[in-house]
Specification:
Radius of gyration: 15 Å
Shape: globular
Order of helices and strands: HEEHEHEEH
Strand order of the largest sheet: 2-1-3-4-5
Distance between the termini: 33 Å
Strand content: 15-25%
Mean pLDDT: 95
Structural class: alpha+beta
Low-confidence stretches: none
Oligomer: single chain
Bound molecules: tetrahydrodeoxyuridine
Number of strands: 5
CATH topology: Cytidine Deaminase, domain 2
CATH architecture: 3-Layer(aba) Sandwich
Number of helices: 4
């Protein structure tokens, strides 16, 4: 999309976003937990930025997929325009219920969302269900950049 046009997410874009999260999960470095997570961020220009979890031999230093995706987006110069986030875990783990971002990741995603004044929908992808929840529902009364001004 050119000319600064803003998009909304239709069914095709949603499917593309979820596919991107699945592809990101395949890039996960998760040898310790064997729990591969992928995250995909959709921006209002239609572009998608992905991340996957990155673990460490010092176990507590693991980086979540959502955090890696947000850091990548900031590194590309993005400071807002976040419309949606898709998160997927590995097949065949747990009960197949949709996974939701951990608490720290909710706060990390919130920074990018509030900078651009959006409340992105979080697509929590499960084995047979995609649960859609607004970030503001996952993280009510969030602390954000506006509090510091
Ligand atoms: N993980 C994520 O990447 N995102 C989440 O929201 C939850 C957990 C990762 C961290 C760790 O590498 C593995 O999943 C098991 O907790």
């Amino acid at each position: 999309m050119g000319g600064g046009a803003k998009m909304t997410m239709d069914d095709a874009k949603e499917a593309e976003l979820i596919a991107a999260a699945h592809a990101a999960a395949r890039q996960a470095y998760a040898p310790y937990s064997d729990y591969q997570v992928g995250a995909a961020l959709l921006f209002d220009d239609g572009s998608i930025v992905t991340g996957s979890n990155v673990e460490n031999a010092s176990y507590g230093l693991a980086l979540c997929a959502e955090t890696v995706a947000v850091a990548r987006a900031f590194g590309e110069g993005r400071r807002g325009g976040l419309l949606a986030v898709a998160v997927v875990g590995p097949d065949g783990k747990g009960d197949g219920a949709p996974i939701t971002p951990c608490g720290r990741c909710r706060q990390v995603v919130n920074e990018l969302a509030q900078l651009g004044g959006t409340d992105p929908v979080v697509l929590c992808v499960g084995a047979s269900e995609v649960r859609k929840v607004a970030l503001s529902v996952l993280l009510p009364h969030a602390f954000g950049p506006a509090h510091l001004t």
